[in-house]
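Hi D.,

Good news: the full-assembly prediction came through. Inputs first.
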Amino acid sequence: MADRLVRTKGFNAFSYKDIAAPLDVKNAAIHYHFPAKSDLGIGVIDNEITKFAASTAKWKKLPEDEQLVKLFDVFRKHNHAGNICLMGSLATDYETLSPEMQQRVHQMGSSILQWLTNCLEQGRKNKRIHFKGTAEARALMIMSNLQSSLLLSRVLGPAAFKKIAAQLLADLC
Amino acid sequence: MADRLVRTKGFNAFSYKDIAAPLDVKNAAIHYHFPAKSDLGIGVIDNEITKFAASTAKWKKLPEDEQLVKLFDVFRKHNHAGNICLMGSLATDYETLSPEMQQRVHQMGSSILQWLTNCLEQGRKNKRIHFKGTAEARALMIMSNLQSSLLLSRVLGPAAFKKIAAQLLADLC
DNA sequence: TTGCTTACTTACTACTAAGTAAGTATATTG
DNA sequence: CAATATACTTACTTAGTAGTAAGTAAGCAA
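Then the structure:
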């Protein structure tokens, strides 16, 4: 719910009302569960961190190139739903977020980067993924491509994601 | 002024006051020049489109790989200043923007994509730039890498931009 | 000098935001 | 059954937002 709002309108462009009204409750009911808006943001991020950890754990036994495809599929679904990625949305508003939220955003970014770096490193060892340079630089590039492909899709049309994702996978596998 | 605010706080997170106060004028003075906030946004985007056109025209005589480096330098400066790219910032808030602003954001994205696609195409012909796949897909990837590298730099530290930019140039040249 | 334009200020409206305090219905538990 | 916790509602405060209407001071133009 709040997740969807952050991904469509941005953290600073939605209000408690936007969450309360569709649930047919009052404004204050949301304040009961999340006293400050920052608590709402933290909830959204923590939820995402947990979901990401669960997903990657589930993929653990797969070959690295297939794990990569799984990650791409997550973004493909978001593209289809008209959502952008949480990192992308919150990075834009980063300077306006509470220190607690900033810390969580950093944590979320770090864990994605760490997982992706490790995936690429192992994939290269197993000759399933091919790239030049360090695994970390390549992980940063993939993260940034996935993130911005959703942003560009919004502005230039959803084909942008498809073109980027296809080329990215072709380059690596 | 407004440009800087959009690039740091985002379009929905700054107010007329943020522009008026540093100039030591009243709120209404800004409304005199830009009646609605959308007009302010349009002013910022039009300014960027003009600046981009002027820059690329100035680079026209350079070899394509050097034109690419010039583009990277623009982003490098923004990274240094703690700014994110206009496209990135406005794409996040896209759904909340007026139709007029959305149209300008689209126009800005299209012209950057068009220029970059052409630059890559010519660069490949002249054997100065090397890549697989279509020039358009590659242009989208470069755009998205530059865009998100500024976003990730904010969250993960400014080294993120440097790593992405360096690897990207190494891949292409 | 009169009239007109530019670039404001003052003072406001209408609205929306986050957040809170106090009260209430319902369910759970000792 | 009484006490308590949960999940709200009602009604409010405070503070900020975009935007406007009316007035004004300075400069320029015929």
